[in-house]
Write a structure and sequence with these properties.
single chain; alpha/beta; Rossmann fold; 5-stranded parallel β-sheet; two-stranded antiparallel ribbon; 8 helices; 7 strands; 41% helix; ligase activity; FMN binding; Flavin_trans-like
Length: 186
């Protein structure tokens, strides 16, 4: 398989495109990757951890602490464990937090601790994507070394047409396979 032995953190944020993350997760596992899902609280409003856990074979991490037993989820350990951090979908809010170092959730703290290449697949409405603040944050993330997987164009959840659709899972998979085969970040 093309991703045998690769350790991937799949970060999922609060976007309608989170449903695509389930397909992406399935493809990553099918290709032999070990995938740890880290989901934001808003992400759980769009797709359940139960679905993601069933597909990954691992408990989904969302909070810093486990339920009532005092278990601490170490963002540092996650950041050291991974060969790649992939955030798909990435909302404007999460990218803004990443660009500004606002470590207020498990996903962003993991990003700030990651020692591996980071791939970001934005997903939002076209006006949000075009907004100068979003474009500035994308530029900052690129300057930080993140690989931005450009969103596609087409019908958006708002009913509008334009750029902002999260890239299709098959294309994201190919981007990661190319990265590992050619050892290039973007």
């Amino acid at each position: 398989m093309r991703l045998d032995g690769k350790k991937i953190i799949l970060g999922i944020t609060g976007s309608i495109a989170a449903y695509k993350a389930a397909f992406l997760l399935r493809l990553l596992v099918k290709e032999g990757a070990e995938v740890q899902v880290v989901i934001t609280p808003a992400g759980k409003e769009f797709i359940t951890p139960v679905t993601l856990s069933a597909l990954s074979g691992k408990p989904v991490i969302s909070e810093f602490f486990g339920s009532d037993d005092g278990t601490w989820h170490s963002h540092v350990d996650l950041g050291l464990w991974a060969d790649v951090l992939l955030i798909a979908p990435a909302t404007a809010a999460t990218m803004g937090k990443m660009a500004g170092g606002i470590a207020d959730n498990m996903l962003v703290t993991t990003y700030l601790s990651a020692k591996c290449p980071v791939f970001v697949a934005p997903a939002m409405d076209l006006d949000m994507y075009k907004h100068p603040s979003t474009q500035k944050n994308i530029s900052v993330l690129k300057d930080f070394g993140c690989c931005i997987i450009e969103p596609g164009e087409g019908e958006l959840a708002s009913g509008l047409e334009g750029k902002g659709r999260m890239e299709e899972p098959e294309n994201i998979l190919e981007t990661l396979v190319d990265h590992f085969n050619q050892k290039k970040n973007c």
